[in-house]
Specification:
Blueprint (H helix, E strand, L loop, with lengths): L2 H30 L1 E2 L7 H4 L3 E7 L5 E7 L8 E5 L3 E2 L5 H9 L3 E5 L13 H18 L7 E6 L1 H12 L4 E5 L5 H8 L5 H4 L6 H5 L6 E6 L7 H11 L2 E5 L7 H5 L1 H8 L5
Parallel strand pairs: 1-5, 4-6, 4-7, 7-8, 8-9, 9-10
Antiparallel strand pairs: 2-3, 3-6
Length: 270
């Protein structure tokens, strides 16, 4: 192979690498967020006693959400921020169990999820969860000292960031990662994820600055978020750790299982 041919091959490889990195940069949010964009059913059909509510974001979006109250004075109100996939209908079983246990629940759908307008991003989700906070504290007059934050996977990052501005009565983190780049590096070890990533979600660093009662729930065989990362978040937050042996990321026991419900109830102010 002549020197000219070698140079052409190397240039071709460089161009391929540059093209791949450019495509990852442009389309990375399609790899991060996996919303179910289909419209959800009326709240009461999926979650008995629930009502459809609208959340108005600071940048002008109207987001659909579900709010359910128990059949007695609620012991606390839980703001539920879901993971990167699905929509609020997937969190209905958890909300139903929490309501039966005496808690009011607001199930948030981010922009781009569950028929909502907009496209998800770190900055956008921060606006969405603040709209949920305003709905509870201003629209429904819930005292901040009676609000619990529940984050599922990516939602852990969403509520942790909100908690820095509006500390809740308690914080439940289910399968948290240390930062989004750490998960991306696990999934795409051949890419310079930390250099390319626009949405950071630094959960570990944020919870380390919080001083609120915190419980971290994780599955012992989580194939999406390495359990070691969730344990690291728990240590940074000085949180109580609840590990469900043998459970994977989306196993039913981590969606609405008894360990999860009990962990939420343990944070209710006494």
């Amino acid at each position: 192979m002549t020197g000219t041919v070698v140079v052409r091959v190397l240039l071709g490889l460089v161009l391929v690498v540059v093209l791949v990195l450019a495509l990852v940069w442009v389309f990375q949010r399609r790899l991060i967020y996996a919303p179910d964009t289909s419209p959800v059913p009326a709240a009461a059909t999926a979650l008995p006693g629930a009502e459809d509510v609208r959340l108005r974001t600071a940048d002008g979006l109207d987001l659909g959400a579900w709010f359910v109250r128990p059949d007695r004075t609620p012991a606390a109100t839980v703001l539920v921020a879901g993971g990167n996939g699905g929509n609020r209908a997937d969190r209905a079983p958890l909300a139903a169990k929490l309501a039966r246990a005496g808690l009011a629940v607001l199930v948030l759908d981010y922009r781009g999820y569950g028929g909502n307008p907009g496209d998800p991003s770190e900055a956008g989700l921060a606006l969405d969860v603040r709209a949920a906070w305003r709905f509870l504290t201003e629209g429904r007059r819930v005292p901040p000292g009676e609000i619990l934050f529940y984050g599922e996977s990516l939602g852990c990052a969403v509520v942790a960031e909100l908690a820095l501005e509006h500390p809740p009565a308690g914080l439940l983190l289910r399968s948290p990662f240390t930062e989004l780049a750490a998960v991306g590096a696990e999934v795409y070890p051949f890419l310079p994820v930390r250099l390319l990533l626009r949405d950071r979600f630094p959960v570990r660093d944020e919870v380390a600055r919080l001083r609120v009662p915190t419980v971290v729930v994780l599955g012992g065989r989580d194939a999406v978020v390495p359990p070691a990362q969730s344990r690291e978040v728990a240590a940074a937050a000085s949180a109580r750790l609840v590990e469900v042996p043998g459970a994977d990321h989306n196993d039913p026991v981590l969606l609405d299982g008894p360990e999860l419900v009990e962990a939420v109830l343990s944070l209710v102010p006494r």
